């Protein structure tokens, strides 16, 4: 018997909203959080726009002892985890410590912290470098700090796969719950809007250099020119469906299907693997294309990648066969945090019956997509498919369902 895994808590830190309610109010209303970089002076760089989380003051949320040892991404992740647990109605100190785990994704680690300590090394000497540098920059630090803060000693880990990693982490969390862990905190938060992190991101060749906020990040548009990077993401609380219902938890929905593939090496003449990932996810969920009410697109905004994604969606659903949206046009691409944020948006879309818009995009005629642009679309949403790709050929897809669509078998367990 397969255990049904549900999401009972959300914690969001996004460029267009801090906290789940603010994020959803902004997203359903088409509020864009992209602007000129304020974390540092970007004048000397070819790209100057980013999605930055507004109004976050770590001192208002975290004890002072944590501040010297944490990067901005970890502070955001810790607070988002606190919010997700509170949203789920979970008090970690009331549960067995080995019954709870933490599995997050990361794309870059703590770049801002690392840059500061490297500057000390070069300008002052090694004796001035913080001992916390040994882990504050590390990819796994968010999982470690969340587990320590909440006394969670069950399965812990990190997945690194750029944007796709965010879905891979949630899938790994589902796997651990099916093995017997009662609760897993999952998702991802990235934040590397600092000079060192910015230079690293520019090496991808996929960052938009437009200075026009409304035209800088326009996937599936004839003028697509790359993405705008952003910071933030979402943390989710996953539980065994039966255990969640047993304690009377309010359930957002079920993680019902997952698929992942890797693109063939360039020049092999084989097609990208995104379509296959989608088909695996649908089969895992026991769903057919007609069951899907909306697709949250990866939306790379690189013409050849947009074309590949549009072709994959069309191959599975048919021309204009399913509504497609990319609310990340309001936040920028958040790397590992992007897909968990799309999962949060999918659950909120299911709850409200509303598909958020893909702002600023004028869909190119070559794409046979039913792209929801400009205005949100009010419609019943019961099942959603979230897509995410990672630099280097990662493809992941995840199907989520409304809470009352979990299997009768699970309800009877």
Low-confidence runs of at least 5 consecutive residues:
none
Hey, roughly how much beta strand do the residues contain?
Answer: 15-25%
Q: Mean pLDDT, as a whole number?
A: 95
| Number of H- or I-type helical stretches | 12
- The N- to C-terminal Cα distance equals 10 Å
* Total beta-strand segments: 16
Q: Can you tell me the overall shape?
A: globular
Category from helices, strands and their pairing: alpha/beta
Strand/helix succession:
EEHEEHEHHHEHEHEHEHEHEHEEEEEH
Radius of gyration: 20 Å
Describe the largest sheet: 12 strands, mixed
Helix content: 25-40%
Notable features of this structure?
413 residues; alpha/beta; twelve-stranded mixed beta sheet; two-stranded antiparallel ribbon; 12 helices; 16 strands; 20% strand
Walk me through what this model shows.
The chain is α/β, with parallel strands linked by helices and 413 residues long. Helices cover 32% and strands 20% of the residues. The chain contains 12 helices and 16 strands. The strands form 3 sheets. Strands 1, 2, 5, 6, 7, 8, 9, 10, 11, 13, 15 and 16 form a 12-stranded mixed sheet that branches. A hairpin with a 2-residue loop joins strand 1 and strand 2 (17-18). The longest helix has 17 residues, at 72-88. The protein is globular. The relative contact order is 0.18.
Layout of helices and strands, plus pairs?
Layout: E1 5-14, E2 17-18, H1 20-28, E3 34-36, E4 49-51, H2 72-88, E5 100-105, H3 111-123, H4 133-136, H5 141-150, E6 156-159, H6 162-178, E7 183-190, H7 195-202, E8 232-240, H8 241-246, E9 253-262, H9 274-285, E10 294-296, H10 303-317, E11 323-325, H11 338-352, E12 354-355, E13 370-371, E14 377-378, E15 383-390, E16 394-402, H12 408-412
């Amino acid at each position: 018997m397969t255990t049904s895994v549900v999401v009972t808590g959300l914690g969001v830190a996004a460029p267009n909203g801090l906290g789940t309610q603010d994020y959803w109010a902004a997203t359903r209303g088409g509020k864009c959080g992209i602007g000129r970089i304020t974390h540092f002076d970007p004048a000397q760089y070819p790209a100057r726009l980013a999605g930055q989380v507004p109004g976050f003051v770590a001192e208002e949320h975290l004890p002072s002892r944590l501040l010297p040892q944490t990067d901005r991404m970890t502070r955001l992740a810790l607070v988002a985890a606190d919010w997700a647990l509170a949203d789920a109605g979970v008090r970690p100190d009331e549960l067995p410590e080995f019954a709870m785990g933490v599995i997050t994704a990361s794309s870059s680690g703590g770049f801002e912290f690392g840059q500061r300590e490297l500057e000390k090394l070069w300008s002052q000497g090694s004796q001035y470098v913080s001992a916390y540098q040994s882990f504050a920059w590390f990819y796994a630090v968010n999982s470690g700090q969340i587990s320590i803060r909440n006394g969670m000693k069950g399965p812990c880990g990190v997945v690194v796969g750029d944007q796709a990693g965010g879905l891979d982490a949630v899938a790994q969390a589902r796997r651990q719950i099916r093995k017997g862990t009662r609760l897993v905190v999952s998702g991802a938060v990235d934040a590397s809007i600092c000079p060192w992190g910015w230079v690293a991101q520019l090496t991808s060749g996929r960052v938009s250099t437009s200075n026009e906020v409304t035209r800088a990040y326009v996937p599936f548009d004839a003028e697509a020119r790359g993405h705008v990077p952003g910071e933030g993401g979402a943390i989710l609380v996953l539980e065994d469906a039966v255990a969640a219902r047993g304690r009377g938890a309010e359930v957002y929905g079920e993680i019902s299907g997952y698929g992942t593939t890797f693109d063939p090496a360039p020049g092999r003449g084989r097609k990208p693997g995104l379509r296959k990932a989608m088909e695996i996810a649908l089969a895992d969920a026991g769903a057919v294309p007609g069951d899907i009410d909306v697709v949250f697109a990866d939306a790379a905004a690189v013409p050849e990648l947009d074309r590949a994604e549009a072709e994959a969606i069309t191959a599975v659903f048919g021309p204009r066969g399913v509504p497609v949206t990319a609310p990340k046009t309001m936040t920028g691409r958040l790397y590992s945090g992007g897909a968990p944020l799309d999962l949060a948006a999918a659950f909120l879309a299911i709850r409200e019956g509303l598909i958020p818009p893909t702002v600023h995009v004028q869909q190119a005629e070559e794409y046979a997509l039913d792209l929801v642009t400009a205005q949100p679309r009010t419609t019943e949403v019961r099942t959603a498919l979230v897509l995410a790709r990672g630099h280097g050929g990662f493809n992941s897809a995840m199907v989520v369902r409304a809470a009352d669509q979990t299997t009768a078998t699970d309800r009877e367990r």
